[in-house]
Design a protein that fits this description.
alpha+beta, six-stranded antiparallel beta sheet, five-stranded antiparallel beta sheet, globular
Length: 563
């Protein structure tokens, strides 16, 4: 072992045994601020200590529970939205990895975000925490060559673009700078509508989007998207190529365009120049001008068969609906909920229904708006609590608790898109001390009891409820859909209500308030942090629409922020 580990300084022992054992299969590496293990118990100690809150911030981040087929690029993509990834160590035999960020601040932002939103790769939840090590150094062993090559590809693009911005760059550096700031995007398996605004919200998380043009070619929905720089385009391609916008459909295929700039003539639902808000709408005008169409035609012929684009990274992680980016697939700050503003339930439902009618394998359940919720606490669950909780992710139409199996319930959402969204966020969450299981039901609708039939109030119709969050087109609620978290967003607070009033109110829900903060610019809104996600879920159920007086009813939702 002395010949493998070259420079381990004396420090805390946590995890050193596990890391040292990894050397034999993953090649030599140097990890500063660690020490060799004196016994075989450090691996268990490592797992136990990482569940505590006493871990000091570090630029090195430890990633666990990685799927067996994960790629280096997918691991790197976890850190890209937060800053520059300066080093990478893959421990594939242990389904683990370490990445090093360029600053402690970037690492802190990353860990803070993933503490509230579970990241997924290839539909598997993964776990992210600070490493006890302050610096990560790897050598050029064969087992690490691929990881370093993927990392160098990203760094080359970043370096070259910085040089270009400074005005002095060599021809060779320019060649690394990013191909083109324009991406060509093909959406395969288009069973749900994908709009220009959806693309903008997804791709803007990786840089400034200047222009987008959408069109249909070879019976495929396609887009050209221009970033302000090639580095942003590189990051977006690395993170999003191969991802699914919705579960098992709407797959993104991304490559660099031969074009270096887009010429947008009209701002409408097909094309947009975000630097030129003065452009006319140009309804019924062709989106692509002749020059661009010709260039694109040549590009398509070079790429070969329609919709088949070779990618050096070959992503495969799919994230379920909602994006779904957060709950599964790729977790990116702010991306989560990006698909919520679709605002096209009828179109999505029609697409899913059509897929079901023509017998697309595995898609029939996606056309259903009814969810089966099981493993409930029969002593505490009510239709009203399920209506409030599932209403965070869509407009609940009906709820039915099964008469003979009160640990099971049916929840009918407004459409299949909302049902998928609720399922992706709430499956596995704890309610009343039990982990809910949420799946698609075989039922197409929830039947109301016949007139005169007594069902003990177990079936409720909420189709005309004033508490629906998404009945207003263009509502800001579409842009603020987040997974359950310990931090809640409060709004519609009257001026007379104080911080102590709200703390006392939320403590009364059998929970403990850990932190509270009014918004500086608007005291009608605040953040309140409970001691656990389960407590926050209960508080939301109990206090959403609570009467605060002065004709103000409290609005409660989950927040992506922390206090």
């Amino acid at each position: 072992m002395d010949g493998i580990v070259q420079d381990i300084t004396v420090g805390t022992k946590r995890g050193s045994d596990e890391l040292l054992s990894a050397c034999a299969t993953n090649g030599p590496f140097i990890m500063s601020n660690s020490a060799p293990s004196a016994n075989g118990n450090d691996s268990k100690k490592f797992k136990a200590e990482n569940r505590t809150s006493g871990i000091l911030p570090s630029r090195v981040i430890h990633i666990r529970k990685l799927p067996n087929d994960v790629t280096e690029a997918e691991v790197i993509s976890l850190g890209l939205p937060f800053g520059k990834v300066t080093n990478l160590l893959m421990l594939k035999g242990k389904n683990q990895a370490f990445i090093e960020m360029n600053t402690e601040e970037a690492a802190n932002t990353m860990v803070s975000y993933y503490s509230t939103v579970t990241p997924y790769l290839r539909s598997h939840p993964i776990y992210i925490q600070y490493s006890n090590h302050k610096e990560l150094k790897t050598d050029s062993s064969p087992n690490q060559a691929r990881a370093q090559a993927a990392l160098q590809a990203v760094n080359a693009v970043q370096t070259a673009n910085m040089a270009i911005a400074g005005g002095g760059v060599s021809d060779s550096a320019a060649g690394l700078a990013g191909q083109s700031p324009v991406l060509r995007i093909i959406v395969e398996n288009l069973f749900y509508p994908v709009t220009l605004d959806v693309l903008h919200q997804i791709f803007s998380k990786f840089g400034t989007v200047l222009k987008i043009i959408t069109f249909t070619k070879n019976n495929q929905f396609q887009a050209l998207l221009q970033y302000a720089d090639g580095s942003s385009a590189q990051h977006a391609k690395l993170a999003l190529d191969g991802q699914n916008i919705y579960n098992a459909c709407c797959t993104l295929r991304i490559d660099f365009s031969k074009l270096t700039s887009l010429n947008v003539k009209y701002n409408n639902d097909k094309s947009r120049d975000y630097t030129r808000p003065d452009l006319p709408s140009g309804d019924n005008q062709p989106t692509l001008d002749q020059t661009m169409a010709a260039a694109f035609g040549k590009e398509a012929s070079l790429l070969g068969a329609p919709g088949i684009i070779s990618s050096p990274y070959g992503g495969g992680a799919g994230f379920p609906p909602s994006i779904a980016f957060q709950q599964a697939g790729l977790s990116v700050p702010g991306v989560h909920g990006a698909l919520a503003p679709l605002g096209m339930p009828s179109a999505a439902a029609a697409a899913a229904a059509a897929a079901s009618r023509i017998g697309i394998p595995g898609f029939a359940s996606a056309a259903n708006a009814v969810l089966l919720v099981s493993n409930l606490n029969p002593e505490r669950v009510t239709p009203q609590c399920l209506f409030i909780l599932f209403g965070v992710y869509g407009d609940v139409q009906r709820v039915k608790i099964l008469f003979n199996k009160k640990e099971n319930a049916l929840v009918q959402m407004f459409d299949c898109t909302q049902a998928q969204l609720a399922m992706s966020h709430l499956n596995g969450q704890r309610l009343h001390g039990k982990a809910m299981r949420v799946t698609m039901s075989k039922h197409q609708t929830v039947q109301l009891p016949r007139e005169g039939q007594e069902d003990q109030g177990l079936t409720k119709d909420y189709s005309s409820s004033p508490l629906h969050r998404f009945k207003k087109p263009g509502s800001k609620n579409f842009q603020n859909i987040f997974p359950p978290s310990a931090t809640l967003h409060l709004s519609n607070i009257p001026p007379s209500i104080t911080e102590e009033d709200l703390k006392l109110l939320f403590s009364s829900t059998t929970g403990m308030v850990k932190a509270f903060k009014f918004f500086q610019k608007d005291r009608k809104m605040a953040l309140i942090q409970m001691s656990s996600v389960e407590e926050a879920i209960q508080a939301l159920i109990d206090l959403h629409n609570h009467d605060l007086g002065e004709n103000h009813h409290l609005r409660v939702s989950f927040s992506k922020s922390t206090i």
